[in-house]
Every structure is written in structure tokens, then in C-alpha cells.
Amino acid sequence: MEIIEVSPRDGLQNEAVLVSTEDKITLIERSIAAGLRRIEATSFVHPKRVPQMADAEAVMAGVPRRADVSYIGLVLNRRGFDRAIAAGVDEVNCVVVASETFSQRNQGMSVADSVRTVRDLADDARAAGVALSVTIATAFGCPFEGEVPEATVVDLARQVGEFGVDEIALADTIGVGVPTQVARLVAGVGAVAPGVRLRCHFHNTRNTGYANAVAALDAGVTVLDASTGGIGGCPFAPAATGNIATEDLVYLLDRSGVESGVDLRQLIETADWLSGVLGSTVPGQLARAGVFPG
């Protein structure tokens, strides 16, 4: 299982504390030291909308450059894409929301417009030599519209898959999904985008995040997003709480005999360090409970 570390972006974007650029870079360095090799480093969005990400260029200027580490920048539009390329990201992650209301709240455009944005950026990403992934947000439910038809999610995956994207991520933005949904959506997306790598992004808002991770694993998914300490959420989704914690996920995988290549004890140390940076205890359980056996 490959784990994408999202704490520097999705983790920090919903925190009340404005974390310094230096601490963000330290978080990334700690993640690399623990064995994580794909890291969502920042997002290139308007600083007035997400002030926690206002230093995107400075973060990218300070991260260690290694051939075995890939940095992902999240973008919502052409302006963000151009900034990400100029800053030297290795991968660009675009967002397509599966519900109209949240699409307008999150990125100020319709679902159809966001699909067109992906289409317009696909060739430019290839020309720039960067990988292009698409996250389908609210794939398991919307905070404003409620249930999201699975057929809608599958059709969006079909559309973006036809643009030649490298990866599609199914995101449970507000943590409402359950394992049966995971199995159905993974199967549905796999059928319409068979040549595209599939990953999943879960939140543990209702204590289903880790069960969903196991369901994704059982369904054949080999890439999962996670956030050290379990921090994160979406500033445009009411009551959206943290991502699944990287250290808790690695414990689950290790005890299940699934290789991740990530050092669990270093993750726990980083989660403890992150609590100090944020001034509050992170939601992840392992930093408090410890590993087993000890």
C-alpha cells in the first residue's frame, strides 16, 4: 500500500493556527524521514480563501529535492496550475466536486466547469512533465445536498479518465462513507476508467475512516491518503473533521501484513511534535495509545 501524506495541505488548511513556513517544511522533512515518498505539500489557492496556504511558493522553495520524493500541489483553476508549475511541483492534483452546491462553495464554479478545467489542463500537465491526478470530492455524500448518486461519481470518473489523467482519487470529504459504498464505487470507477490508477481519501468524522481503508484495500486499491496526527478537514464543509491518521493507518497495515515502507515510531514522534506546533493534542489514537507490542 502506498500512502500519500496530506498533512502539510489537507491537514493544516483547516487548523485555526497559522503554521509557519519553517514548521511546514519541517513536517515535510519528518514525513520523508519516516519513509513517505508522495507528499501533498501545499495548495495553490487564493490566500484570502485559505490563508493557511498563503505561503505555497515559499514552502515549495524550501522542501528538500530528492529523486525518490514526489511533491503534489493542489489546484482549482488555471491560475493555480500556473503557480504550481512555476513553483516546481512534481504532481498536480485537480478537484472535481460531485455535488453542485459544494462545487460552488469550494471553488466557485459548476461541476461541468471543473471538468472542463481538468480537460484544459491535461495537455499542459503532460507538456510540463508533471503527473495529473483528479480528486472527486464529496464522492460519498455532500454536506449541503445529502446523498450523492453513485452514478454521478462514476460518470465524473469516466469523463476525467478520458482526458488521460494519471490517477483518480475518491474522497469522502465529510466522512460519511461506509465500506459497502467503497466497494461499489471502486468497482464502478474501475470499470469506466480501467487504465487509471485509483486511490482513496477518507476522513474519520464518523469513525468509519479505517473501516473504509480496509474496504478499499480489499477492493484492490493500492494508494491511500492519510494525514499525520489525523489532522485536517475542509474549511468549506461544516463540521468536517480530520483525515485518517497516517500512524494509525500504518499500524493497521503493519498488523495486517501489508507493506507500506513507513516507519511507525517516527510517525508517532512527528504526531507528538505536531501537537506542540498546533498547541492541541492531535486526534490520532496511536500517539496516545502507543504501538503493540510495545
Supply the CATH architecture.
Alpha-Beta Barrel
Estimated helix fraction: 40-55%
Rg of Cα set: 17 Å
Model regions low in confidence, pLDDT < 50 over at least 5 residues: none
Strand order of the largest sheet: 1-2-3-4-5-6-7-8
According to CATH, what is the topology?
TIM Barrel
Topology, number of strands: 8
C-alpha termini separation: 24 Å
Summarize the helix and strand pattern as letters: EHHEHEHEHHEHEHEHEHHH
Q: State the fourth-level CATH superfamily.
A: Aldolase class I
Structure description:
Helix content is 43%, strand content 15%. The chain is an alpha/beta fold and 294 residues long. The chain has one domain: Alpha-Beta Barrel (TIM Barrel). α7 links the parallel β5 and β6. α2 crosses α3 and α7 packs parallel to α8. It is globular.
